[in-house]
Amino acid sequence: MAIPPGIIFILSVLPFLLVPPTLTYGVLRIINVSTPTPPSTFYKEHTDKQKAASLNAHLIPRVPRDSFDFFGYKLTKGLVKNAKMNYISEAFRLWAKEYGPVFQIELLADTRIFTTEPDHIKALLATQFDTFHKGPALFKQLQSLLGEGVFNSDGDLWKFHRSMARPYFNRERIADFDNFEQHATLALAKAEKRLAEGYAIDFQDLVARFTLDSATQFLFGYDVESLAARIPYPSSPPLPHLDKLNQLNTPELVSEDHPSNAFVDAFAEGQEKSVRRMRVGDIWPVSGEDFWRDGVQPLRKVVEKYIEPMVVKALERKKRAGDQKETGDGELGDTLLEDLIQQTQDVTMLKDELINLLVAGRDTTASTLTFCLYMLAEHPTIEARLRREVLEAVGPNRQPTADDFRGMKFMRAFINEVLRLYPAVPNNNRTATQPAVWTSKNPGSKPYYVPAGVRIMYSVFLMQRRTDLWGPDALEFDPDRFLDDRVQKYLTPNPYIFLPFNAGPRICLGQQFAYQEMSFFLVKLMQRFENFKLAPDAQPANSKPPAHWAQGDARQAKEKIWPQSSLTMSVKGGLWVTMDPVKQ
């Protein structure tokens, strides 16, 4: 019988809590659990100072904590509370404002480094890539959902996963555009039908279904058909005739048990619970439901019910075909799964990889498309300009091509500006496998010392809003910053200030695929709808921005919606909008 996660955690920290060491050691040896024995905070800081001095460096500034805040408990509790009610990364933004773009904090006796400095993030992702890994702590937090896939592995295993997926994303496929066309047409038809009833639509829900169906089609060759399920009605619809419509008991209003719902719900809940572990930190096994059982594992099993039969069928086809694929000798397959089974027949490894890529292929694109519409609704002149480019390049009805997108400069600038202010993955983590030295931007200052084993949090979200990196208008939405002289002034000399797709060896393999999918959907949207408007009456009351945001000194004062972050960024409560069909 498996030992509950909470029990394993408690036994592993008993030495730190000064339980008699002999008894603790004996119990841990019997159940074969490793025992971390962290030194005291004071001793570690002393030795770190000595090591830094030996390298002519100094320690990164530390955020002071209350003298009675043992192990940083109060600080950690405050961060959790802050995350629930404040803007994304607001506590870290305020600390950066006071202590600079790089600082240390102590969370539950664990020192963390936080940075928004481009040179430091460049070191994490590229120049010192071998020094900074995802690390064992993050692996444990995400293992129940992601397994040992490409986003939750390091070293040789990561390289193998990366090499498996690379060939598929190194080519352009006409089939991708047919896939986009099929699902975009279906999604927009559902939107038009709901709008015709007089209701706002949750655009975030709609594009999440579009990207999920498109992603499962190109990953597995099997569409989960989430767009066939009913899209949600507003929780507080503004129209008075809802009761009458409900009495009609029409299929569109009945809550249907569509087969895709279990997959969609389990996938979303699994991500939410995994992120909760990341926020809690190392003590996640003793927080909430994870104490007695793994709360994510059952959700992973639901997702696997959809994926495993497809993997098994693909392996059976390969077995029948021998060493040659059914598509021909040496020819790449139509789906990523067909490519992957040419390199491994390990079912667990295949499932891990597909689930990892599904997170990237679905959630990041859905996030960006959601914030694209938010910005279109907030900026009618930008909507008009983008539509003008679409009509000039593609026309009112034609399916766009890759060549069309290459000439649509404003489309790319618009998407980039959305990614700058609302990056799909706003924050990330690394762990130092060995000591490192980082440059300091303070004139005449010594470099910073980064101890081995320390965890580093870096925020692309905050970095891409820094006025010293992007200019005094950094908090304003302006796609022209990617077209005018600001490119040469800010971005060209310092390309690491813009990292929506990561950088270095872990740069997103599907970057161009994502640009094409987002551009395709936006073209179809512009061809079919206009006059995008937010629908605050349809927005759930508990998802509207808190009143105190209006007094903030950053972009939260402008927000009409509540951005939130899990593995990817989203809008709390959905993005409820109205739009008008284009008159042909």
Structure description:
- The chain has 584 residues and is of the alpha+beta class.
- It has four domains: 1-35, no CATH class; 38-133 and 439-462, no CATH class; 168-424 and 500-581, Orthogonal Bundle (Cytochrome p450), CATH 1.10.630.10; 465-498, no CATH class.
- Helices cover 50% and strands 9% of the residues.
- It has a five-stranded mixed β-sheet, sandwiched between helices. A three-stranded mixed β-sheet has the order 1-8-7, with helices on both faces.
- The model is unreliable at 18-39, 238-255 and 325-330 (pLDDT under 50).
Task: Specify the biggest β-sheet.
Answer: 5 strands, mixed
The class by helix and strand makeup works out as: alpha+beta
The CATH first-level class of the largest domain comes to Mainly Alpha
Give the overall form. Answer: globular
Query: Any idea what the radius of gyration is?
Result: 25 Å
Q: For the terminal residues, how far apart are their CA atoms?
A: 66 Å
What is the CATH architecture descriptor of the largest domain? Orthogonal Bundle
Mean pLDDT: 86
State the share of residues found in helices, binned by percent.
40-55%
